[in-house]
Amino acid sequence: MERISTGISELDAKLSGGYPKGRAILLTGTPGAGKTIFGLHFIWKSLVDGKKCLHIATEESPEDILVQAEILGLDLRPYLDSGQLRIERVFEIRTESAEMSAQLGFGFETTDVDLLDQVKLIPDDTDVVVIDNMGVFALNMSVKEFRDLIDTITRILASIGCTTLLVMDEAANNLTHGIAEYSAYGSIKLMMKDNPYTGVRERYMDVPKMRSTEISLELSVFNITSEGIRIHKSTANSG
Ligand SMILES: Nc1ncnc2c1ncn2[C@@H]1O[C@H](COP(=O)(O)OP(=O)(O)O)[C@@H](O)[C@H]1O
Ligand SMILES: [Mg+2]
Question: I need a surface site. Which of 39, 152, 226, 233 has the fewest CB within 10 A?
Fold first, then answer.
């Protein structure tokens, strides 16, 4: 199976070369766990490798994404300017519509951005898609509707050969009973917890599922540094 670099060399090594090409991988985790930064590494490396990328941003403005990436040494601006990268402004559409509705006296009622419509409009020469964060779409849907949405968008993206990272916050993942983990081709979980030996808080990455890939079930410890994500070791070697 062809692989696409994750943008994090230690993760590529763990996944036999990278994310399975043309498939959708789910990335879940608590707030601050590093999900958005994982996505930025993937986008940046794909751009450097000449791929056409789309970032669907539901939680941050494009400017915030560019700034965060830049701080980590991942300069996305030239690619945005050249059109090799597109950032979909879902965050602004979502919050502006909520604000408008509140002003009109309807309360904070959002005319939800239709993710399915957005996905249908993705040009078929797109190689890489990051949707950060899918969780906002889960909030006013039944679990069944959400599963259908995920299955439909992963089918459409697979049909045009996109390798997709579906970022989803832990709260929405719990609310939907982790259903997205069944639909996705692979699942990566980020978390923070106290090291039982040292009492120090550490960041962990777990890869419970990656179809067609031999994976180690050990947790990996990682850091977020000024150069982005550094995965150091599996827990089996630590302590
Ligand atoms: N330049 C940096 N150096 C060290 N840590 C950073 C830096 N930039 C961001 N971080 C860490 O990354 C965390 C945010 O990661 P992010 O990917 O946005 O989380 P998530 O999307 O899972 O909520 C911050 O809480 C901070 O701890
Ligand atoms: Mg985030």
Answer: 226
